[in-house]
Amino acid sequence: MRLTVPNLLTILRLLAAPAVAVMFLYFNRPWADWFALTLFVVAALTDWLDGYLARAWQQETKLGAMLDPIADKAMVVIALMVIVGYSSMSPWVVLPATFILFREVFVSGLREFLGDTAGTLKVTALAKWKTTTQMVAIAVLFGQGVFEHYLGMSAMGMDPVLVDRIMMGQEPDLLGLQWKHAGMVWAGNIGLLLLWLAAALTMITGWDYFSKARPYLQEDR
Asked: How many Cβ atoms sit within 10 Å of the Cβ of residue 83?
């Protein structure tokens, strides 16, 4: 096995996946949200960088080809687990996350079953768009958590009636409640829209992989 720079970046991305969840165990919010968001974004960027460097430096290896999809799946699965947990099991988050996780398990099972013929299920351009959409959706939803927590901190201890008057513009907004609320709403809506789009792409690419694998699932006659 060749331990090249692109491979090291892939390994670091793989290690960053559980670290995203660990942030919420050892740090209080909003620091945990910031650390998780930063870690996830940096790790997602290495997904593009390690592939680019491997091609540019002609350092494409079997180790990298094996670890790259595993790192991507680990990042998505663990980050979705954290987001679902902090969404209080909102069906708007749970349902697309379920589709995404189901597809990842299903396709991984297909590849394991096909063994030496797994090359039939090569990553398509649409699958790459799916991964990119997932990464952006998760990053935006982590950003929503940041806005939500700062809004809660700013409004802590305030009279709910006063908060309502501030939000309606009837009182001066000295603590920035309005822009924090707007950031939370916009990030939440955009993040959910992208997550549902990612779920749709996930199911389409999953069906495409299943269709390509069907000839290998026929019983011998």
From this structure: 23
Contact assessment for residue 30 and residue 150, using Cβ atoms and an 8 Å cutoff: yes
Scan for tokens 């009636």, then name that residue: 161
Nearest to 197 by CA among 141, 123, 119, 114: 141
In terms of residues, how long is the chain? 221
Q: How many domains does the chain have?
A: 1
- Domain span at residue 158 reads 5-217
What's this model's pTM, rounded to 2 decimal places?
0.85
Supply the DSSP symbol for 156. T
Cβ-based neighbours of 157, under 8 Å, separated by 6 or more: none
Cα-based torsion angle of the residue sequence 22, 182, 96, 202 in order, rounded to the nearest 10 degrees: -90
Cβ distance 30 to 78 under 8 Å? no
Q: 100 with 199: CB under 8 angstroms?
A: yes
67 close to 10: Cβ distance less than 8 angstroms = yes
Tell me the per-residue pLDDT of 87-132, one tens digit each, with 9 for 90 and over: 878 899 999 999 999 998 888 888 887 776 656 667 778 888 888 8
CA–CA distance from 41 to each of 3, 13, 19, 212 (Å)?
24, 10, 13, 33
Neighbours of 117 (CB within 10 A): 12
Sign of CA dihedral 21, 27, 32, 34: negative
Q: Phi-psi category of 61—alpha, beta or left, where left has phi over 0 and alpha has psi -120 to 50?
A: beta
The answer to whether residues 59 and 9 touch, using CB atoms and an 8 Å cutoff, is no
- The CATH number of residue 85's host domain is 1.20.120.1760
